[in-house]
Amino acid sequence: MKGTDALIETMLKHGTKVTFGYPGGSVIPLFDAFLEYEGRIKNLLVRHEQGAAHAADAFGRVLGRPGVCIATSGPGASNLVTGIMTAYMDSSPLIAMGGQVKVSLIGNDAFQETDMMGITLPITKHSFQPRSPDEIAPVLMKAYKLASEGRPGPVYIDLPSDVQSGNVTKAIPKEVRIESFRPNVRPHPNQIKRAAELIINAERPLFLIGGGVISANASRELKELVHLVQAPVATTLMGKGAFDEYDPLSIGVAGMHGRKIANYAVINCDLMIVIGCRLIDRVTGSLRTFAENCRVIQIDIDPAEIGKNVKPDLPIVGDAKLAISDLTKAIRGMAKKGKNTEWEKRISELRELCFCNLDRDCVPVSPIRVVGELMKALKESDIVCTGVGQHQMFCAHFMRVRHPRTFISSGGAGTMGFGLPAAMGAKVARPDAEVFDVDGDGSFQMTIQELGTCAAEGIKINPVIMSNHYLGMVRQWLEIYFNKRYSQVSLGKNPDFVKIAEAYGLRGANVTRPGEIAGALKEQIKSRETFVVNIELDPESNILPMLPPAGNIKDAFGGCMKAPGRFF
After folding, report:
1. Which residues fall within 8 angstroms of residue 339, CB to CB, at 6 or more apart?
2. Is the preceding peptide bond at 205 cis, omega within 30 degrees of 0?
3. Separation of alpha carbons 99 and 114, rounded Å
């Protein structure tokens, strides 16, 4: 057995049957070995290494186990960095592998040698560089363990070419231990008891849910707790789908571009139960004023996140699923929360006022109409991936999602170009689902070449491009804060995205009127291959309300706000 055999056999034992990669000189041994495993594992040849990382990231988010991407040394490996960083910021399970020069040449500035161990140090849970073929299998086993257990995240493996092609002399171990890696998953019972008492005694409790609940597969447990407590649920962008947004207790996404009912609840609650959420600036606004009139319970599996941004009154370290289950048992053991409290009635009344008409019949097309038509076309099990920009925030704000792992977006990094390759990875993970890439014309063009991967590999996704011919989110900021001094945000005349699709042997449709959207989406869904729908929007549509940068949530303005800071 060679090092490459040990690598592939280990991937197979961990359930990996597909990888996303791009070959080069230093990984020829590995890609050559794939031929010997035909029918058991397949590499999907992307058109750029960044696409491989995003596709593997989304694959991991959809299935809850690590996706795998592979690149060659030097620029191949460094092109993975944006995707690795994106996965790190969003706690996504990912194993990234890059080739490296021979062990004897490391440190000599050999051709295409890059210090990927140094580069990836701050954006991975760990980086490995096996120096002999015998180390490959144990290293990869550790990588799967690290990427999946505790707080998920990316792991990087540097693969010297001679280590890949060398002979393995030791048996592959059945399991590995990482002495320093012991995530605390069981929450402390005393903290759970104190949290239950706080919740029972609160008059205006609010759940603020982040992506950690989805990572912990805790949506069912969360629903049980929420309905026991009868408290409203706001989410972050990454938490979207953790709780059914059609549930009467759901009040949508909070934060900079959040729903006004969600931000109203954040301001007016007397107890905030924060679960699996990093409480970053896009959620909190000014840290000085966030949660100034309420107590905070923070539950997270990563102790480093507890109190990092907002000091909680009660910290709980542990797995979200276990913590939520323990809280439910504790509250049931003490007393049942009564239904129809004044807080619940108030939130319920305001929630109904917060739903707006999505059938906006105007030309140029409103992004809100696009989201409305998408919601009509989507099935519950379908998956929506997004690029980054205004279109992403329109989806977060107006689109309602029922299930976890069906809304995939780049949150912490805000990586433009994420949407198209992410949709590819999501479709490979869930071939039974329709997968949509809701994208902007700027974001889409950053990874547009992955249409070639879709065509060559027969991956059927549904790109829906909101074209406003601007870098829309930056333009919005320049309009509001820089007196419309539009510096370097106009994309001018876009290419014909449908013709580009046709150049790859695919099809598409251009939409200029609201009445054409439904028909185009219907044709797209019926297509057996990737079908691009490009929708021409009002160039200066803004996603509102919003918070001023680093401003108080109380100062939210625009859109459905009657006046700055006036919610209802």
Report:
1. 230
2. no
3. 10
How far apart are alpha carbons 252 and 236 in whole angstroms?
8
| Residue 40 backbone class (left: φ over 0; alpha: ψ -120 to 50; beta: rest) | alpha
Alpha-carbon distance values, 223 to 186, 248, 553 (Å) = 20, 12, 27
Phi/psi for 536 (5° steps) reads -80, 120
Q: What is the pLDDT of residues 26-60, one digit of tens each?
A: 999 999 999 999 999 999 999 999 999 999 999 99
pLDDT of the residue at 340: 74
Please say whether the dihedral angle defined by the alpha carbons of residues 365, 367, 371 and 372, taken in this order, is positive or negative.
negative
Contact 266, 289 (CB under 8 A): no
By the 8 A CB rule, do 404 and 241 touch?
Answer: yes
Q: pLDDT tens for residues 324-342?
A: 999 999 999 987 655 678 9
3-class SS at 451?
helix
Q: Tens digit of pLDDT for each residue in 210-230?
A: 999 999 999 999 999 999 999
Quick one: what percent of the chain has pLDDT higher than 90? 93
Residue 353 is predicted with a pLDDT of: 86
Helices (H) and strands (E) in the chain, counts: 23, 18
pLDDT for residue 410:
98
Q: CA 118, 120, 125, 127 torsion: positive or negative?
A: negative
Cα 141-146-148 angle, rounded to 5 deg: 100
CA neighbor of 69 nearest in space, from 95, 88, 46, 92: 95
Q: How many angstroms separate the CA atoms of 87 and 410, rounded?
A: 8
Helix (H, G, I), strand (E, B) or coil at 507: strand
CA neighbor of 486 nearest in space, from 473, 499, 502: 473
CA nearest to 314, candidates 211, 205, 446 = 205
Reported as a single tens digit per residue, the pLDDT across 14-27 is: 999 999 999 999 99
R_g of the chain computed on alpha carbons: 24
> What values do phi and psi take at 118, rounded to 5?
-70, -40
243 and 346 Cβ atoms separated by less than 8 Å: no
Q: Kindly state the average pLDDT of the residues 306-333.
A: 97
Reduced to 3 states (helix: H, G, I; strand: E, B; else coil), residue 437 is strand
The number of C-alpha atoms within 13 Å of 160 and in the hemisphere containing its C-beta is 18
Domains and CATH numbers, the chain: 3-165 (3.40.50.970), 189-353 (3.40.50.1220), 367-537 (3.40.50.970)
- Buried/exposed 539-559: b ≥16 CB within 10 Å, e otherwise: eebbbbbbbeeebbbbebbee
pLDDT tens for 443-457 read: 999 999 999 999 999
Task: With residue 220 as reference, give the H or E element that holds it.
Answer: helix 219-229
